[in-house]
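Fold Annotation — chain and its backbone
Encoding — discrete vocabulary of local shapes
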Amino acid sequence: MPKSRLRKKSDYTPPATATAVKISSGRSWVAPVMLALFLIGLVWIVTYYVTSGSWPVQSWGNWNILVGFGFIAAGFGVSTQWK
């Protein structure tokens, strides 16, 4: 039985114009803002407890705890923008 002719296949070469380009996401502000909100909330709550309610805002009473947790929740909200 005769052998068929073998075709020579050329190896694949990627196009010369394709280069790896790192694109900046433009969200470098997210991590510092997130950490700042976490720390502000934590400091707010700790200050309230350490000063027995006379700081940061005495007239708010126990609502100071909610404000502190609000800052922390805002930090989690900002963290959803992080890539």
About this structure: The helical segments are 30-50, 63-79.
